[in-house]
Sequence to fold (273 residues):
Amino acid sequence: MASFYPKGAERADASRDFLTAYEDFHRKQMADRKAAEDPLVRLARLALETYVRTGERLGEKDVPSKLRAELEDAAPKGAAGCFVSLKKDGELRGCIGTIAPTKPTLRQEVLSNAVAAGAHDPRFSPVSEDELPELVYDVDVLSKPEPIRGPGQLDTKRYGVIVSTRDGRRGLLLPDLDGVDTIEQQVRIAARKGGIDLDRDNWQLERFEVVRHMTATATGAAARQPQGSDLRRARGTAGLPRVRRGSAAPARAGTAAWWPPTTAGSRPSRSTR
Fold:
């Protein structure tokens, strides 16, 4: 029988205490990751950890002065929609966002969506205090969605997509997701999230770009990972991993012709990833 706990005479040999060695390694790994977080990511973490531990929601004035100063340089000015994603052990633990801004500033948007991702994502139970040290955060800042005429104006790596109907149903999918390699996959998944039947409903498409704020790599690469046109210029030099995960069945060849040319407007909306 294998055991992580040393037994017998070997017990005095700390090098054989594999469980303790792994736990020490994991704690250090998470501490290093936390120390390398982008300021917007640290803001999201602070908001959720405060809420879970105290039940209080942070306002902008509650943010420590040092972090506020770092946000002045790192965070876009003004308002913007954003998504806050949480992962635990490499798996999604919560993701809530706003397609268009609902708050006066991006900072307030992050503070609100971080709490929503950890406490109000309907797909998951609320995050517990014991889980907080294990969470990894991403903050995706969205450009203003723009209506498009059809799928030919989409690119799964560059653009996220919104599928919507006139009765208010709406599904969104972020760009550059692992396992989403074709436009058909991207649109079908977004439609499914919004409860939209692409074969029966009258629907419209919008696209948007994203700047992804995340933890820096061990080599010290910048924690801001641009998506879209910025990403095309940055790939090969930023050294940042793709961290989004997803899965979808392979698309059949020659099935892109079913998208009609459409237009759509946009409005503020809260959504899961």
User: Anything to note?
Assistant: The chain has six helices and ten strands.
